[in-house]
Amino acid sequence: MSFDSISKRGLVILGCGRMGGAILQGLLKGGLSAGAVWVIDPHPADWLQNAGVHLNTDLPANPAVVLVAVKPQMMADALPHLSAMAAGDTLFLTVAAGITMAGYERMLGADTRLVRAMPNTPAAIGRGVTAIVGNPKATAQDLDMAEELMTGVGQVVRLEYEDQMDAVIGVSGSGPAYVFHLIEVMAAAGEAEGLAPDLALQLAKATVGGAGELAERSDETPGKLRENVTSPGGTTAAALEVLMDPDTGMAPLMRRAVAANIARNRELGK
User: Fold this and answer.
1) pLDDT tens for residues 136-175?
2) Which H or E element spans position 258?
3) Strand 37-40 vs strand 113-118: parallel, antiparallel, or unpaired?
4) Nearest-angstrom CA–CA distance, 11 and 32
5) What pLDDT is recorded for position 13?
């Protein structure tokens, strides 16, 4: 990574909890100097206090980037204090769900250069996927900078429109929780058929993790990979008849789940 602009002007991180901390750790591992980072966090983790960053001190007047990683309900109190930065050429990069660009512009000013980013929790191990989209004030260089910063915690995709962010939150933003629940119910099904709890959980974790990595690495579609495992009239086919039922199977259930997620996200954003 190239951090010339940040090294000269600084990076401010507002809130360094799980996601902000994962991003910071990815940047430090990628070669960013801790001395170029200012963190505002009222309850810093132990590792952060020994990371060499500027912690809860006066901020630079014109940093290259402000990374907003506080909870949505704290935005109204935290952001207006940074409006002077927004009036300059500082890029604001936010990883919080539920607040639209219009909401940020009301708190920071209409001239704010803003990029919304939606990572997910596997960012904590460098395996996240982040969608980004900029407001009209964000330049091509701003989007490049945002992508470079978020690449430290996984893959990055660019959206064409902010409206697509709702679907991103419904699919990948909250998606790890769906997968974790899949592991839970697979393990519970194994237990119900006589497996020891620890063994059932080990099998479920390894199966989901391995299948996910195979899907990422393979040039074949998930549908083709599924067909490769399924012998006509066999045991997998019997299970898939249940899972692929058009009325009660996984597809209609997942559509309802994602739709409920999006509806709630829109309620929170009002």
Assistant:
1) 999 999 999 999 999 989 999 999 999 999 999 999 999 9
2) helix 250-268
3) unpaired
4) 10
5) 95
**Domains recognised in the chain with CATH numbers:** 4-161 (3.40.50.720), 175-268 (1.10.3730.10)
Phi and psi, residue 49, nearest 5°: -70, -20
pLDDT at position 76: 82
Q: Considering the entire predicted model, what is its pTM?
A: 0.90
Q: What is the DSSP letter of 3?
A: -
**What are the residues whose beta carbons fall under 8 Å from the beta carbon of 10, sequence distance 6 or more?**
36, 37, 38, 59, 60, 63, 64
Q: Please name which of 134, 123, 185, 127 lies closest in space to residue 158, comparing C-alpha atoms.
A: 134
Q: How far apart are alpha carbons 166 and 72 in whole angstroms?
A: 15
Terminal Cα distance for the chain, rounded: 37
| Residue 15: strand, helix, or coil | coil
- Is residue 12 within 8 A of residue 59, CB to CB? The reply is yes
The 10s digit of each residue's pLDDT in 13-23 is 999 888 899 89
Distance, CA of 159 to chain centre = 14
- Identify the segments of the chain with pLDDT beneath 50: none
SS3 of residue 116 by DSSP: strand
Q: What are the CB-based long-range contacts (under 8 Å, 24+) for 5-9?
A: 5/64, 5/145, 6/32, 6/36, 6/64, 6/65, 7/32, 7/33, 7/36, 8/64, 9/60, 9/62, 9/63, 9/64
pLDDT of residue 2: 63
